[in-house]
Amino acid sequence: MVTTNPFSSMFGRSPFKALHTHIIKTDDCAKHLLTFFDACEQGDWDQAASIRQTISKLEREADELKTQLRLNLPNSLFLPVSRSDLLELIHVQDSIANVTKDIAGIMLGRRMQIPETLVPAMRIYLKTAVESVCQARRALGELEDLVESGFGRNMSVLVEKLINELHELEKQSDEQQVEIRQTLFSLEASLPPVDVVFLYKIIDWVGDVSDQAEKVGTRLQILMAR
């Protein structure tokens, strides 16, 4: 029987192609945070608004992919993985795009600029978060090959290496977050209290990007273990 749903053709022998397509969209969404932060730092709010629109568009596209994957995911698969694990994985991936959109939305809405003292550390912190998402994308990209190889040892070692590197990135993010929060604490008296509240929120949300990316790695480990 020939299907008329183009999305279903993405599954092939497994849903991992669709999952990989989704995380590519999520990764693209996160990468735009770098140029968005630069535009905010420069006070170029027109450029920031344009980038925010791009982020929102990518987030909507990722959300549509998530919905289509859920609708097309069979109740049973000829794979050594469970449907519930796959659904949890797509949920975690999608949360990355959601947080990215939230960061851009609140910063643009309030025309937030990071205090000059915090800018260098914040840029490194943000790059770590974006790299975490990219690393999750790499790990998932190898997973389909792992499934097709019958979970062969060499491929399994490669995926584990990528996931371990992802855990290290998340650890770096945690350490960077602590340092940034400490610096912000020392600046609180010189900043408007409301600005301080939202700065802490942005710092936490950037950390959430790394956290969710690491959770992708954790879900992949669960899939491999089963």
UniProtKB/TrEMBL annotation:
Residues 152-179 form a coiled coil. The keyword Coiled coil applies. Belongs to the UPF0111 family. Pfam families: PhoU_div (PF01865). It comes from the Bacteria. This is TIGR00153 family protein. InterPro entries: DUF47, PhoU-like_sf, Put_Phosphate_transp_reg. Keywords: Coiled coil. It comes from Cobetia crustatorum.
